[in-house]
UniProtKB/TrEMBL annotation:
Domain Vta1 C-terminal: from-to ranges: 63-100
A Pfam family it matches: Vta1_C
Annotated transmembrane regions: none
Location of region: Disordered: 1-39
UniProt name for this protein: Vacuolar protein sorting-associated protein VTA1-like protein
Gene Ontology annotations for the cellular component aspect, listed alphabetically: multivesicular body
Length: 104
């Protein structure tokens, strides 16, 4: 089996290394390079109405409501993987509103 750039790690032909494992360790040339910094993002303001929402007693959520709330949370998680904070916040706000009011 061919060896990867790490001692003792064997990767079979045609296989890919896990995403968090570099295929090769770059050799230091002694020259420092510019590091890429994430660009700061402005976060949209949190909807103030969400602070005042109190679950109103007998809200009955359907299985579809739970599925939609889970979908919004999943979208928020995906947005965070791309450092898209405003989209993550928007989707979390949608999920909270749905779960606390029964409406979107």
């Amino acid at each position: 089996m061919p060896s990867s750039g790490f001692t003792g790690i064997q990767i079979p032909p045609g296989a890919h290394a896990p995403a968090n494992t570099p295929a090769e360790v770059p050799h230091s040339t002694g020259v420092t390079s510019n590091t890429i910094q994430p660009t700061p993002q402005t976060i949209s303001a949190i909807d103030p109405a969400l602070f005042n929402i109190v679950s109103q007693g007998d809200i009955r959520l359907t299985p579809e409501d739970f599925a939609r709330a889970q979908k919004y949370c999943k979208y928020a998680g995906s947005a965070l993987q791309y450092e898209d904070v405003s989209t993550a916040v928007q989707n979390l706000q949608k999920a909270l509103k749905l779960l606390t009011t029964g409406r979107e």
